[in-house]
Amino acid sequence: MVSTLLPAECVGVTVKRQGRTILGPIDWTLEDECFTIVLGPNGAGKTTFLRLLHGLQQPRSGKVVWQKRGADLYCAQSFVFQTPIVMRRSVLENIRYPLSVRKVDREESYKQTRYWLERVGLADKSELDAASLSGGERQKMALARALITRPDIVFLDEPTTNLDGASTASLEAILKSAQQDGCKIVMATHDLSQARRLADDVVFLHKGKLVEHSSSQLFFDRPQSDLASAFTRGELLT
Amino acid sequence: MTDFFGGIFAAFELVFSLDEDLVEISLRSMQVTLSAVVISAFIGLPLGAYLALSRFRYRRFAIALLNAMMGLPPVVVGLVVYLLLSRSGPFGVLDLLFTPTAMIIAQTIIVTPIIASLSHQALRELWHQYHDLLISLHTGKFQRMKTLIWDGRRPLLTATLTGFGRAIGEVGAIMIVGGNIDHLTRVLTTAIALEVGKGDFQLALSLGIVLILLAVLVNLSVHMLSKTERAGTW
Ligand SMILES: Nc1ncnc2c1ncn2[C@@H]1O[C@H](COP(=O)(O)OP(=O)(O)O)[C@@H](O)[C@H]1O
Ligand SMILES: [Mg+2]
């Protein structure tokens, strides 16, 4: 599917916090298709960058230009946070929530929710309080809640950082299949091997600057910058 | 001491004899208090939610004011409502003074800040937790309030019950605006004050027991209905 939102263009965007520039200036274009990984060490500005793209964070200067505006834009995006936000409801009602916000017909919303419960493997937990789920299950729930609106783009902020191997694998599998459904995925990670597994293209951030953007193959085989090359060799960046 | 226990025994006898006057007074207590609490909840819960999730200029001031109003002396509230409703007052034409309606108005003024302030405190935390998600989902202000109130229903119920507890035991304000008129505005608390004044401690005590029983009964049934005990986490 070709998203009508994309390409989205960042024009000289910067984000400041407490007088310090924590991101940018960045000039960059987010293209359609493919699995984009935002890679970088802790504190590189990945979270800030994703929040900026999603509109949760306003730029101090510059702008992000999408092909659409207003409700058309926001309703076609979802965000999965690093720490899943668990609403004080059942698992089922957590996943259904975006549909009830959008006033989708009740019957229809329950039907879709049951489908997503199956798809992320939480069907047998649907009636439990969401707070009783494990970390991995919570993140799967958050992912289902993000995907249930059939967004054109999903942003994920290090969704697997707190998960074990098995949970990470099943989350990645769900993401892959969402991508096959035509969903554009932009995911932050500091995990090199995860980037290798998933990325079609890589955006490499360091200290708030966009250091490199290239296809996954190019990035890992022949990184253009010294920083990226050091990072891909597994060296600790300072 | 024997006098005291004898008094309690006689009081219980009176309670379970279901004396006609006693039943009437108890029912009026419940009617006035429950009306005031329901009205206060309809105002206080959305107000608390609004304050929890809105940023406006005088927000801090509004919250401080609300917290201060939690401690309004009921006697002063009664006095002000009395002056407003009295013949020569601005609302004198409504002819509400010394009616249960006047009592409900006074209690609503006392209870609303309590419910609003307690729910604001409970929902502020919840909003902090939900903030990013609800912004990300592009919810409107009304949806946010609805979500906070629904998901915060347990602490909000506690806030409302706190308001109920305050209202059912209140005597100063309703004495002034109700006048403690027999068969019209007499309720349990004002009747107790009257009987103590007359020196009929046994009757006063039995009224007190009914008052406590009613308060406990309401709290228990609300908790049973909401299954608070069963759902441990919330
Ligand atoms: N609210 C804030 N106030 C001040 N500094 C912040 C704030 N949020 C993030 N930062 C700083 O911005 C930088 C980038 O943070 P972040 O985007 O969270 O990085 P990442 O997600 O890549 O770990 C960090 O140095 C962090 O300390
Ligand atoms: Mg981060």
Low-confidence stretches of chain B: none
| Inertia-based shape of chain B | globular
**Beta-strand content of chain B:** under 5%
Major sheet attributes of chain A? 6 strands, mixed
The distinct ligands, each listed once, are: adenosine-5'-diphosphate, magnesium ion
CATH class value of chain B: Mainly Alpha
**SS elements, strand count of chain A:** 9
The largest sheet of chain B is: none
Summary tags:
heterodimer, A: 238 residues, alpha/beta, three-stranded antiparallel sheet, 9 helices, B: 234 residues, MetI-like fold, 10 helices, 77% helix, globular, binds magnesium ion
Explain this structure:
The complex is a heterodimer of chains A (238) and B (234). Chain A has 238 residues and is an alpha/beta fold. In chain A, 37% of the residues lie in helices and 25% in strands. In chain A, the strands form two sheets. Chain A has a six-stranded mixed beta sheet with strand order 5-6-7-3-8-9, sandwiched between helices. In chain A, strands 2-1-4 form a three-stranded antiparallel beta sheet, covered by helices on one side. In chain A, α3 crosses α4 (106-119), α3 (91-101) runs parallel beside α5 and α5 (135-147) packs parallel to α6 (165-180). The termini of chain A are far apart. The model of chain A has no long low-confidence stretch (mean pLDDT 91). By secondary structure, chain B is an all-alpha fold. Chain B has one domain: MetI-like fold. Chain B is built from ten helices and no strands. Chain B has helices at 2-16, 20-53, 59-69, 74-85, 100-136, 141-151, 153-168, 172-178, 188-198, 201-226. The longest helix of chain B has 37 residues, at 100-136. Magnesium ion binds next to α1 of chain A. Magnesium ion (MG) binds at residues 46-47, 82, 157-158 of chain A.
Short overview:
With 238 residues, chain A is an alpha/beta fold.
Which secondary structure elements does this structure contain, and how are they paired or packed?
The complex is a heterodimer of chains A (238) and B (234).
Chain A: E1 8-17, E2 20-30, E3 35-39, H1 46-54, E4 61-65, H2 70-74, E5 77-80, H3 91-101, H4 106-119, H5 135-147, E6 153-157, H6 165-180, E7 184-189, H7 192-198, E8 201-206, E9 209-215, H8 216-221, H9 226-232
Parallel strand pairs in A: 3-7, 3-8, 5-6, 6-7
Antiparallel strand pairs in A: 1-2, 1-4, 8-9
Chain B: H1 2-16, H2 20-53, H3 59-69, H4 74-85, H5 100-136, H6 141-151, H7 153-168, H8 172-178, H9 188-198, H10 201-226
Helix pairs in contact in B: 1-10, 2-5, 2-6, 2-7, 3-5, 4-5, 4-8, 5-6, 5-7, 5-8, 7-10, 9-10
